[in-house]
Amino acid sequence: MKYAEEIELRWGFIGCGEVTEKKSGPAFNMIPGSSIHAVMSRDENKARSYAERHGIPHWYTDAQELINDPDVNAIYIATPPSSHATFAIMAMHAGKPVYIEKPMAASYYDCTRINRISQQTGVPCFVAYYRRYLPYFKKVKELLNEGRIGKIINVQLRFSVPPRDLDYNNSQNLPWRLQPDIAGGGYFYDLAPHQLDLLQDYFGCILDASGYCANRAGLYEAEDTVSASFRFEDGLIGSASWCFVGHESATEDRIEIFGEKGQIRFSVFNYAPIKIQTETGTEALHIENPEYVQLPLIKSVVEHLQHKGTCICDAISATPTNWVMDKILGKL
Predict the structure, then answer these.
(1) If DSSP codes are grouped into helix, strand and coil, which group holds residue 243?
(2) pLDDT value at position 4?
(3) Which region, left, alpha or beta, applies to residue 330 given φ > 0 means left and ψ of -120 to 50 means alpha?
(4) Which contiguous run of DSSP H or E holds residue 323?
(5) Residue 54 and residue 52: Cα distance in Å, rounded?
């Protein structure tokens, strides 16, 4: 296939929102054998401005035209989740590998569609669960693998944030993350994927999950509070709670892993020092991450496509997270 013969990857971006500015976009030009060739947005001014600001040679307002560009041989999809499956399938049918923003899609069903086309075409698909590759979270995995807290007994996740200013907008002007038909759910579907993917990276697939969701504040129609319990493949059990309308004093971003010899506590979004507590005392580890947080994962994707390595963050490994979220929300 064409992508297998290419050494130089020339990326086309479908979508050029905030995530491409702050987390991912510049990283594609920082890796040997990788560059950004084109960008697409339905908003002509946005596409042109992004291309000019970042020195990208071409811009489009139509995704199919970008995919058909003969000089583009890999596609980055950075649009809201509801369009991920459509654009990924279009790209794979064109023989061009795909890197998709998380969550992989707006539903577990759409994830299975992506996987089916990837299998049929032989074109690889990757998902931006970049925290698996960040030094901060790799350190947590290292501590677990070293047995620092012994056999793992239980896992607890707690997350609470106050409403954002945009959440108070009327229903006609809500951010897309609060529109379930676009996002798959509310903020839960946007933020929980990172947390659940990490836990499955550490402990294996979650084979059973259930939950309750509610709208307590009435600011929008999507769920604003969620509680869940789940069981991993080795029998380990865990629980989680999310609140997106909590009081500022209750703000929390924490995962606690309890072992027979102690516990590990860390955050997912604010990178607070990793705390290890054992019978010998408490240790705090400060781990720095790169400026562009997706750089380590994008480097792995590029090297995979150049046949220099193997990227573990593929669509197959990302799909269980959508399954778990849909189970928790009662969509399955």
Answers:
(1) strand
(2) 45
(3) left
(4) helix 315-328
(5) 6
Q: Are 20 and 78 in contact (CB under 8 A)?
A: yes
Selected from 1.20.1250.20, 3.50.50.60, 3.30.360.10, 3.50.50.100, the CATH number assigned to the domain covering 135-289 reads: 3.30.360.10
Q: What is the rounded distance in angstroms from the CA atom of residue 134 to the CA atom of residue 289?
A: 6
Residue 221 φ/ψ, nearest 5 degrees? -85, -30
- The amino acid occupying position 33 is G
- What's the Cα-to-Cα distance from 13 to each of 74, 130, 227, 270, 324, rounded to whole Å? 9, 17, 35, 27, 28
- Residue 59: phi and psi, rounded to 5, are -140, 155
What is the pLDDT at residue 173? 80
> Residue 237 to residues 56, 200, 220, 233: CA-CA distances in angstroms?
47, 12, 32, 9
Ranges of each domain in the chain: 2-130+293-312, 135-289
Query: pTM value?
Result: 0.94
Q: What share of the chain is helix, strand, coil (3-state, %, to 5)?
A: 40, 25, 35
What count of Cα atoms within 13 Å lies in the side-chain half-sphere of residue 316?
Answer: 8
Name the residue among 214, 201, 63, 58 with its Cα closest to residue 141.
Answer: 201
- Tell me the residue ranges of DSSP E strands in the chain: 9-14, 34-40, 58-60, 74-77, 98-100, 125-127, 152-160, 206-214, 225-232, 237-243, 252-259, 262-266, 274-278, 281-285
Tell me if 295 sits within 8 A of 303, measured CB to CB.
no
Helices and strands, number each (H, E), in the chain: 11, 14
pLDDT at 170: 67
| DSSP-derived secondary structure letter, 148 | T
The CA distance from 230 to 192, in Å, is 14
What confidence score (pLDDT) does residue 6 get?
52
Radius of gyration of the chain (CA): 20
Architecture per CATH, 2-130+293-312 = 3-Layer(aba) Sandwich (3.40)
Q: Which residues of the chain have pLDDT under 50?
A: 1-5
